[in-house]
Amino acid sequence: MINQWLKGVSFENKLFCRILLIALLPTSLLFYLLYSYDLSWFIKVMLAFLLLAVIFYGAYSIKQQILNHFRASTNLLEAVISGDYSMRTNHQEGDGGLEELNRLLNKLADTLAEQCLTSKEKQILLHKVIAQIDVAIIAVNNVNCVSLMNPAAEKLFNCRFEEMENWPIKALGLHDVMSKECRKIVEFEIKEHKKKVFLHTDEYFEKGIRQQLIFITDIQKLLREEERQAWQKLLRVLSHEINNSLAPIASISETLLQLLSTPDALDKVNNELGDDLTEGLAVITERSNSLNQFIQRYQQLTKLPLPNKALFDVAKLMRAITLLFEDATINLSNAPLLIYADEQQLRQVMINLLKNALESMLNKPDGQITLTWEQVADRIKILVMDEGMGIDNKDNLFVPFYTTKAHGAGIGLVLSRQIIMNHGGDFTISNRKDQLGAVASVYLPANDKN
Length: 450
Known about the structure:
51% of the residues lie in helices and 18% in strands. The protein has 13 helices and twelve strands.
């Protein structure tokens, strides 16, 4: 009944009314006693008024004290919500429920203040890192409009974030990469200049709404530097090979011209100069043929055909190849394993690797070669392990025409790697960890029919 009557009344007013209702019984008893005593009506009225005033004042003061505590807690929570963590509630030391509530509110404010400070410090660190890295970062909201650009992105697109904020992403020419996750090298035009970049997209959530991030790495300079270094290595090898042929040709030609420039040279051709001319012309012919073979090997490297793939058994191919090396000790497994590749090109690769392995063990006649293959996940791994001297100069392994062999061409490993790469695989050479020697690792797709 009382609850229905107080329905819709504030908590502090309900508390005020309940205090008055509680005081109703003792107040009625005191009024009865005053009425029973033989006192003047003036005194009775004054005492009754004083009693009512004390009851109302006590109830009102209790209401105000509770209301003040509520307002202090409310002000603290409002300050925390607005980001002000400096306000605290005043409370007396004790074990009461209100003191415990105030302590918890102050502890909450301290924790949030510490977390806010840590978050701001991390944001400052993150902004400094983003501002300094060379990767262009662009954030795109759920309606495909620009919401963030770091300085690298501003420099790449030659614009300011303040100018592009909330603009459609298609204004930067990147709308085609927003449909799905992307990781690829693309070339597009920026301010009438074509740039080759590595583009990577990812996503994040803000207030439960999916947003997208675009990372763009300008690889133009990197590619040009790699290209420059590759040309430098190639030109060094070309210069070395051509000079080795042209220098003796020029020297012998000059010597022959000097011999033939004497007055009686023609008379001596059939006598003393005959052997010298024959020997000199033989050297010129040999070096010319060597230079011609060098050019032909270069053409072979640049005109490698694409693989003609078919399904075949790796074990059968390996057994056939080992028959070509009857004098070598080659340990191989007989486990059958099907692969989809160009059998002839893979045969050429394996012959090159086995030849290299044998040549690395010239000083170790009892050395053995271990040839293994297995399927690991969606790739086939082929290993050629020897017991030679290992690799001394890893940097020049795949430099065209570089060789440490007396009669080497310097294209075997380069050609082998190119064949494997054309198959969509990978090819590495490293020193063995279990003992002295080298291991050539070939990785090929297991059943790639694309």
